[in-house]
Amino acid sequence: MRVFVTGIGAISSLGQGVGALQTALSEDACGIRMHELKAPAPSDQTVSSLCALVDDIDLSGISSDKISLRHLDRNTELALAATDEAILSARLTPEDLRTCNTVLGTSTGSTKSVEDNYHRLFAQGRNALSPTTVPRSMSTSALSALSLVYGIQGLCFVVSSACASGAHAIGEGFQMVRSGRTDIALVGGTEAAVTFGVWKAWHALHAMSSDGCRPFCATRNGFVLGEGAAMFVLESEQSVERRGADVFGELVGYGHSSDAFHITQPSQTGVESAIRGAFEDAHVDPGEGALISAHGTGTKLNDVTEANALIATVGDGLDTSDVIATKSLHGHLLGAGGALELAIGIIALNRGKAPPIHGYREPDEDIRLPLVLGQPKPIESRYLLSNSFAFGGLNVSLLMRSK
């Protein structure tokens, strides 16, 4: 059964909404800036760092009599903003939503609520916490909010697989629609993990850059933390025809693997398996080429591993491919990264222009890929390959075909 994308919603440091995202891409705008992260009061600890934060979250168009929108965790607010846009763009009715299935990816969940409440309990020595602590801190809090606000009564669950969470959620929703388990699936990822504590944890791994994310560049030195969300409406061909829905493209392949190798170090074999699996699942020859949205974290080891895996799997297809790496623009959204990068890839495919890698300085002799550099480049391929590779060796590749 064929599966189409009929709705997209997005929010990130590049702005709220697909329109803002399109504008940012056309202007090569970068959402990475210096921010001051503060520990919860009364601590006076702060850190200044490059981050990619959302300036404002507008939920004014959303209303609900089942949940207070004033007391939501930031992770939930981001998910609602992206979901509302995806639903509106797909023109789903309340009845469509009632029966749809929902899969949401998130890596750390409600980080700020957890961090703030631990601080109250252990640092401030309080004997009691707010009764909203558990509802705000659950890993499923954003998903539950979506169900309550939109009356979703179908199968709903959260996928948490580190930086592959959003991509896994999209892939699993794709399988549900393709197999006939549901006509409509609401899928994507959300993440609001740019907090003082999370920054300190990543800093301890020496994985973050202090001067910008430059994937595949010889001077790359790490990633930049970001936040945001992207959501999609997936529909069966029959549902699209019945509703007369417009489509953004067709999801045709889902490849996935687990390295079973190392908790932080990637395995080229595992990455290759996911990429190859996406093409095989779609019955598409990699030699046809694609717009490749790389995982591209900007770390020394990950970029080389991904480059070598692409050479091994796509082969001569790279001659007609273009490789983009948009974490250079919006930072690393962890569990929401794969979802936002798929949205950007779909926008690029439909516009016919691939966005260049922002801040790229000089080539790495160990990386021989057809990188998009300097200016947007016309896209020749009909296909989009979007890669997401997570700590613990959890890999996902999604393959789209243009509308």
Structure characteristics:
403 residues; Peroxisomal Thiolase, Chain A, domain 1; two-stranded antiparallel sheet; alpha/beta
Helix-strand blueprint:
Layout: E1 3-12, E2 15-16, H1 18-26, E3 33-38, E4 46-51, H2 74-90, H3 94-99, E5 101-105, H4 111-123, H5 133-137, H6 141-150, E6 156-159, H7 165-178, E7 184-191, H8 196-204, E8 228-236, H9 237-243, E9 249-258, H10 268-282, E10 291-293, H11 300-314, E11 322-324, H12 327-330, H13 337-351, E12 353-354, E13 377-378, E14 383-390, E15 394-402
Parallel strand pairs: 5-6, 5-7, 10-11, 10-14
Antiparallel strand pairs: 1-2, 1-8, 1-9, 3-4, 7-8, 9-15, 12-13, 14-15
Mean pLDDT: 95
Coarse structural class: alpha/beta
The CATH level-2 architecture of the largest domain is identified as: 3-Layer(aba) Sandwich
Number of helices: 13
Large-scale geometry: globular
| Count of distinct strands | 15
Radius of gyration: 20 Å
How much of the sequence lies in strands comes to: 15-25%
CATH class of the largest domain: Alpha Beta
Oligomer kind: single chain
Relevant CATH superfamily of the largest domain: Thiolase/Chalcone synthase
Assign the CATH topology of the largest domain: Peroxisomal Thiolase, Chain A, domain 1
User: Main sheet, how many strands, which sense, barrel?
Assistant: 11 strands, mixed
* N- and C-termini, Cα separation: 16 Å
Count of individual domains = 2
Helix amount, in percent?
25-40%
Provide the low-confidence segments as ranges.
none
Q: What's the helix-strand series?
A: EEHEEHHEHHHEHEHEHEHEHEHHEEEE
